[in-house]
Amino acid sequence: MAIDLRKRIVDLSKKAAFAANKHGIEGQRAQVVLVLDISASMNALYKTGVVQRVIERILGLAVTFDDDGQIDLLLFGTHAYRLPPVTLDEIDGYVERVILSQYKIREATNYAPPLRLIRDQYPLPQPAPVFVIFLTDGANADKPASADTLRELSAQPVFVQFVGIGKEDFPFLHKLDELPGRFIDNAGFMPVNDIDVIKDAELYDRLLNEFPQWLKAARENGILAA
């Protein structure tokens, strides 16, 4: 791995730690999962390096939270795909080597398949809460199934931070943020017009905005150890 990239991720981890401290969760451990949209409209973001830079920034968060300093990574379009974890040793050129070499960025958009993979992969109990960053640029075709799966996840040690990128209004992601019928509120939503432009400190601050409240509710309801 290039020394400059390693230094950048170390610097990012310091910014992520600052955001965690600001939200009162310094020292909190978490398993970080990144879920990436590979629908056709995302193609340019992969080809121009935007998604690679997103993964690098999320790795800075993982280094802060995760004992093994890695990201569990899922892709989704029509279906969902589990990829090799992203680590400091594997981050350099990850998008080119692992994603673009094997997957076509031209599928439809379904949220339920990756949510089901997460549901099945992280049942109770878990060694640490699971913090999912779910990044998409458009509406999905499977709204009832997605809502049902998010409800199922609400009794598991999993918090899903949805990130809508681009100029869409994302009405369904707003709906998921307020979804009734869940055991506890297990999701947040943040729109980002241009994820490549947002400052690192603001990105981490917004990503972590609702996570502390979920941690508190999960402990009070026996999903996490008190």
Describe the structure.
The chain is an alpha/beta fold and 226 residues long. It has a single domain (3-21, 29-220), classed as Rossmann fold (3-Layer(aba) Sandwich). Helix content is 42%, strand content 16%. It is built from 9 helices and 6 strands. It has helices spanning 3-22, 43-47, 50-65, 94-100, 112-121, 143-153, 171-177, 200-207, 211-220; strands spanning 31-37, 71-76, 80-82, 130-136, 158-165, 187-192. A 6-stranded mixed β-sheet has the order 3-2-1-4-5-6. Helix 6 (143-153) links the parallel strand 4 (130-136) and strand 5.
Question: What labels would you give this structure?
Answer:
226 residues, alpha/beta, 6-stranded mixed sheet, 9 helices
| Spatial separation of the terminal alpha carbons | 39 Å
Share in β-strands: 15-25%
| Alpha plus pi helix count | 9
In CATH's first tier, which class applies?
Answer: Alpha Beta
Give the strand order, joined by hyphens, for the main sheet. Answer: 3-2-1-4-5-6
Percent helix: 40-55%
Give me the CATH superfamily: von Willebrand factor, type A domain
Query: Which ranges are low-confidence, i.e. pLDDT below 50, for 5 or more consecutive residues?
Result: none
CATH architecture: 3-Layer(aba) Sandwich
Approximate shape = globular
Which fold name corresponds to the CATH topology?
Answer: Rossmann fold
